Amino acid sequence: MFQFFKRVKTVVSSELNSMLDKAEDPVKMLDHFMRDMAEDIREAETAVAKQIANEKMLKRKYDDAEALVQKRQQQAEQAIEAGNEDLARRALEDKKDHEANAVSLKESWERTKSDADALREKLDEMKKEYQQMQLKKDSLKARAESAKARTKMNRSLSSIDNNQSKRGFERMEEKVLRFEAEADTSEDISQASKTLDDEFKDLEKSSVDSELEELKKKLGK
């Protein structure tokens, strides 16, 4: 993991987990790592582009030197055919100089091309690794959010079991039950304190009520 990324290449799996454990927000830390990796890729792309440009420039110079070698060869042959040996000699001497230059340019071009190919290969591997880490980051973020939600829910449930509101509610419930018991008791006491005359008055009232109901039925009311 992080094989090609200079900013985080020393962070092995255990160290990453340790950093995430200490971080206030693991999601932000993961985003930070991904930004660093993306920056490394951009820098690698710039380096590869420069190397490719150098390779193309050297290839063009090598092709030009080879073209001059062929040109001087043809000119030397043309001079010989024209009977101008001195001109042919000078053309061959210049050809020799361009051949030496072409050999040097070819070596530089091949070396630069090899380096460019290696950089391109590493860049491709960096991009693949970045994509893998992106998927892993998304998974870790989802797990972190899930863990946060569970922790919050558990704390809420714990507070419900232990908070003052619940205990206060229970106290009010006990008071209501006590009020109801007191009301029942006072009613029993009131009933017990009735005199004999009070009971006869209730009986007479009940008889009048019954007679009134009979009268209403008779009149169709």
UniProtKB/TrEMBL annotation:
Ranges of biased composition (kind: Basic and acidic residues): 131-148, 167-181, 195-221
Region annotated Disordered, chain positions: 92-111, 131-221
UniProt xrefs under Pfam families: PspA_IM30
InterPro entries, sorted: PspA_VIPP1 (IPR007157)
Ranges of Polar residues composition bias in the record: 154-166
Family in the record: Belongs to the PspA/Vipp/IM30 family.
Classification via PANTHER family: MEMBRANE-ASSOCIATED PROTEIN VIPP1, CHLOROPLASTIC, PHAGE SHOCK PROTEIN A
Name of the protein this chain belongs to: Phage shock protein A
Provenance organism: Gracilibacillus halotolerans
Native organism taxonomy: Bacteria, Bacillati, Bacillota, Bacilli, Bacillales
